[in-house]
Records
---
Amino acid sequence: MFKAAGYDLKETSADLLEDIPLELLHHYQEQGMTETEMAIAYVKFRTAEFKDAMGEPIPSPAITTKDEKDIAIRLEQLEVDLANQQLLCCLAKSWTTKRENY
């Protein structure tokens, strides 16, 4: 769905990983997170940080509405990418198990 719209989800994940501070990146790696999970966690972290800093939202369609939409789109893209990766892992495990049983 997103590829048809011109989004490259792997590129999105890689771009976000470059933005993650090194200490936080190491923390995510110690937790055993995939790159996509790291990107999703960082977007959620930055979103919460942004909302905390802003306090109560001030209506400003030129800034907050666009930012919120961009964040929502990016988060949705990453969640779809993570779901696809998990599905592929399940399919690969299923296929491997079937091969071993024959």
Note: The longest helix spans residues 61-101.
---
Amino acid sequence: MTPMNTRFFQPHPCAALIPLLILSVFLAMGHRCLSADEKRKDPQPYLTLTGTDSRVRERGCFLIRSEAEWIKTWQRHKASKESPDYDLFHNPLGLPAVDFGQCMIVAVFQGAKMNNAGLQAVSLVEEKERVVLRFENKTYQTAQAARLTIPAEGVLTVGAKDEAVYGFFVIPKTGKAVVVEEGVRQLLTEPLKFKERASFPPRVDPD
């Protein structure tokens, strides 16, 4: 039974603010959204943008509340020089349009990961004092292979694929605390165990 102080997010007009045209651009750029057979019954973010080609190689989790923060994060993601004077009209980096009056973005960078096809939202639940976003890694297994030493390049594991995984989760704007939990497991046959990845304090925007 769902606790009295817990409710699921309902569809919001913000979802319509991200044009279908932008989604087609995502796909053309090598990004992907979840297909129909990957959708969960649990409440979900408005949009999940994920891939394996981020230029950000360090692990990190950020809550983006403004267009300025979004531009800065996207420039890092694309390995472009950070500049507050980004040309939104010509939009050379293909920055997705988001209405930050209605939405926020949880940005997750996994750094260099082996055998990971991206991230997938598991649920998005609003509780009395916080919002909890849960996600998991879309991992896959490869046969164990020999390790080869390459001069000046370190060790290469043959058969495993080194990816720079990222996920951008568009969620409703809220002043409550936001908690991000990551589902982890050693084997694909094991159940997910969720661990806190990041926590962001409550915030009330000035009028």
Note: The chain is about 10% helix and 40% strand.
